[in-house]
Each structure stands twice: as C-alpha cells, then as structure tokens.
Sequence to fold (390 residues):
Amino acid sequence: MRILKNPNVDFLSKRLVAAGISAVVIGIGVVSLVTSGGPRLGIDFAGGSQVIVRFAEAPDVNVVRDTLERGGLANATIQEFRSSTFDDIADELIIQSPGLDAGSNIDTVVATVNSALSGLLGGAQDGMDLNTASRGDLVASLILANPLGFNLTADPETAESLYQAEVTKLLDAKATAGLFTDWSEVEAAGIDAAVLGVFRGEGYFGPYAIVGSDFVGAQVGRALRSQTIQAIVWALVGMLAYITYRFQFKYGVGAVAALAHDVLVVLGAFSLTGREFNLPVVAAFLTIVGYSLNDTVVVFDRVRENNTTLRRMPLRERFNTSLNQTLSRTLLTSVTTLIVVTGLFIFGGPVINDFAFALLIGVLVGTYSSLFVASPIVYLWLKRDLAKRH
Fold:
C-alpha cells in the first residue's frame, strides 16, 4: 500500500537545516536537564515511598502538604492527577517521600498519611471507615460480632478463615471502585447478608482511600539506576554490532547516532514537561530504540540494494531515491503506530500516561531521525570515501 505516489523529496539538501533543528532541540533538553539537576526520578531510582490517595472531593494540596510535614513527612512531593480522562477535577494525589531512613517501611508511611489526612478531613466518625480500615481490623470486627454464629471457642480457625473470605470480597470491591461512596458498591460484592449487616451497622464511608503504595530502599534505587544505564548502553552497542554485521561499520555508526539522538530528545521532553522517569519509562525508551532501528534498517536495506541496481547513479541521487522509495512505508508504519499510541496517551489513564508519552515522542522523532540523521551521516561518510579514491 502506497500513501504517496512517486515522491521526489531532496532529503539530503535539507540535512544542514535538520542538523540545526536537532541541535537546538537537544540543546534545550540538555539545558533543562542541567538546570533541574537531571531527570525527575521516580522512587524506582531515587528510593523512598509512594502513596496514591483517591478523594471524594479534592482537598487543597498546600494544606495537605503542610499537614504531612507536621505529621513527619517533611520532604513529601505531591502530584495531582485525574483517575479518569473525563473527570473535571483532579481527584487523586500521588504522595512521594524520597530519602527515608533505613528503619522506614511502607506500613509506617501509610499510617502517617492516614493519620494526617484523617485529622485534615475532620477526624474519624463513630464506627469503622470502610475506605481505610485494614484487613486485620475488618476481620477482628467480624469475629467480635460473629454474625454467622460460629463456635469461636471450639473452632476459631474455621471462623477466621470464612470471615477472611468475606473481607476479601469487600476489599476486592473497594479495589475496583477505588473509593466507596454508596452501599450499592458493597452489596454488589456478593457479601453474605449477615456480614453485610455488620458492615452497615458499624461502618461508614470516609472521604478518601489509599489506592496504591510502594516503597524502594535507597540502595535498591542506586542499583536500578546503574542497571538502567547499562541496559541502554548495551542496547546501543548491540545495535551497532548488528548493523555492522548486516551492513558496514559506517552504517552502524549512523544508526546508533540516530538512536542516541532519539533518546536525548525524549529525555529532554520529559525534563521540560516535568514528567517522572521510572521503570515503565525505561521500557518505553528501549521500545523506541527498537522501533527507530527498524525504520533505519529498512532505509539502509534499500540503499544497499540500490548501490547494486543503480550504481551508475550519483551517490546523492541514489540516497534520495532510496529514501523516497521507502517513504510511503515509513509514513504508513508511523501513522498507524501513532494512532494506537495516541489512544493510549489520551485514554490509557495515569498509570501508563508517561509510558505512552515517551512512545508518542519517540515514534515521531524516530521517523525523523531515520530520514534526517542516520542517512545523512552514512551519505557523508561514503562521500568522503569516494573522494579519497579519486
């Protein structure tokens, strides 16, 4: 399928303009990285804790920050986002606490956040908050009420096991809803009617719920940073070896230069937009490397073919012809990929938004670099070799 009929673009005549654009874009990204002290590392690399809290009504972030500082999380970073693309308000907060001491763990951090938010939002009501109660507290309340009438003295293990199962239904329903706001959400979980009666009698729905938490030690974060750098460097070395084996060393240099160009542009985009650099984003970067290389290999393959079939044609025309012959395929692949990635970016939700953003920029830049970075480098190298022979 061809979306362009007999294109005739002089790509190589625009190589200096393209080089200037690339230099400016990469320069802006580098300046942003330097002035901001590097990319904004997620807890995967920086170490620390992350707690995600969903609210029925979004609170004042500045008040939350002050409350957390008084509660012991002095260096907490708070990020607002919407749990749904179509929500009008930011109803979730990501609370990150980097650089915690070795004695900290995620349970103590969650307890601190719970304590601070409970005071901020007016304190607890009489009863048990079904949005924040722990599994242990829920099971203990059922054993105390014993709505199923077990003989707790003769067979406490069976009673605890079955009440655990009922609590699991409740917690699974909360995980699906994110935040209980109506009893119909609890009833839909299929909880035993007598157990549901205890929850109704003793429970209420608080104004927030912790929907996610994670903790990474500082030592683990440093190890992940080192492994990530190694992964990207070895990926580039592997690509250089592959292209050198399949084509020539000069082609490998052009391909790796284009890949490094793409990585720097996307990294600069993350710095400029203040996005978090974490493990899913690393996966996106490695995906970009593979995608960009695929485009470049297609172009190089056509160049090599035309070096045989069109060897009487001047080198510059031969390269331009090769680029034009593969242009329809390149654009078709890029457009179809962009449609999917754009859908992920817009509708995929906050969990994969940074991943999709990296792919979105990477696909665009990867297509550009195949045409205006990799090919001109190889062309200039071959042109120099020809000049030496004459």
In short: The first strand starts at residue 40 and ends at 41. Residues 48-121+208-216 form a domain with the Alpha-Beta Plaits fold (CATH 3.30.70.3400).
